[in-house]
Amino acid sequence: MLGEYWRRRDAWVQALVRTPQTTLPSDDRNRVLRAVIAELPDSHRVVLEMRYFGELPLAEIAKSEGISLGTVKSRLHYALDKLRLALKAREETERLRA
Question: CATH number, domain at 22?
Answer without folding.
Answer: 1.10.10.10
